[in-house]
Amino acid sequence: MPNGERCSQKKWTGVLIFFFSSFIGFNALSATPALQELPTLDIDKNRVTVSGVSSGAFMAVQLHLAHSSVIHGVGSVAGGVWECALGRVTRSQSVCMMNPKNVITADHIDLAKRRAADGEIDDLSNLSRARIAIFASPKDLVIKAEGSDKLADFYAAFIPAPSITRLSHPTAGHGFPTLDFGNICGAFGKPWILDCDEDLAGKILAATEPGPRASAVRGQQDLTSVLYFDQTKIVGTNARMYPWGAAYIPKACLAPGARCGLHVALHGCQMNPDFADRKFIEFAGYNEWAETSNLVIVYPQSAKGLGNPYGCWDWFGFTGAGYTTRAAPQIEALRKVLTAWGVP
User: Fold this and answer.
1) What is the pTM of this model?
2) What are phi and psi of 177, to 5 degrees?
3) By three-state DSSP, how is residue 72 classified?
């Protein structure tokens, strides 16, 4: 098929997917998959990284600062500066999402220093060895791209400039860009995955992994390598987490003597199983790189509920005060998930 016809077909297929998904809402509760016990893996403690999109981007940064002694790379997609909302949902919407130009980065740097001095987050000196990838699109109508500039300025106070990678796409809407799955690239709506001919997952992993890639070749995922696990058993019932989470484990990482890295991929609002089934788990693009990089991908899932109807991660305080500290319910829960997967 000629390229022009392929692009046209992709465009109209994307339009139909977008309007159909908007009509049915993707709100049916996802059927609970068969849950399995976690295998015993040898995780390379120097290859523990995290990324997230939208609310997951804010949470990825919060998790990093809370546990920077453990996490060595962070990818932020359509996010913003650490503790942007200051615990106020009105500020999260009016400033962080729509007017991030009004964020005073120095205030957040000072707040991080106070939190570290009080022992609420890890020592900020750990940040100097981290690798950061920050993605934003000028066409994002949900979280304006200026928020990424504020996050870059924040990290620049602690991290050498060469360790901060900026990524963008000229036409991507709000969501997670992929090579070949999702709504049309500039679309607005569930499942917030965008077909932009963009291997963003691969670029994030390349920028955040602490050393050279084991392979520069994108592999092919094998969905029989997705394991679903009981999150409640790991984190309890107070963290506003979904009953189950998922992980992609390449078969090579199960072999005797194998040592693999671990990457935590955090979905955004309206991307958990209530709204998007397993689409982020299966189609974000991380699994393909896991196959060729000796990398386990863990997909924790946040739950919708009172004060959080869209299943967001807590980046504005719906779980209570101190939501960015080590003692925060969801940060504590995510740390337990890391421990369960073999991160000391």
Assistant:
1) 0.91
2) -70, 140
3) coil
pLDDT for 29 equals: 52
| Per-residue model confidence (pLDDT) at position 215 | 63
Q: Which of 122, 137, 140, 274 is catalytic?
A: 140
Look up residue 308 and give its two tokens.
């959080």
Q: CA-to-CA distance for 75 and 135, rounded, in angstroms?
A: 8
Contact 329, 319 (CB under 8 A): yes
The active-site residue, picked from 169, 174, 263, 267, is 174
Is residue 54 annotated as a catalytic residue, yes or no? yes
Q: Is the peptide bond before 191 cis (omega within 30 degrees of 0)?
A: yes
Whether 168 is catalytic is: no
Report the alpha-carbon distance of residue 149 to residue 203 in Å, rounded.
18
Distances (CA, A) of 178 to 66, 140, 175, 204, 257: 29, 15, 10, 12, 33
Residue 263 annotated in active site: no
- The Cα–Cα gap between 181 and 61 comes to 26
User: Which residue numbers in the chain have pLDDT < 70?
Assistant: 1-30, 212-215
Handedness of CA 307, 338, 298, 246 (dihedral sign): negative
- The catalytic residue among 54, 55, 92, 148 is 54
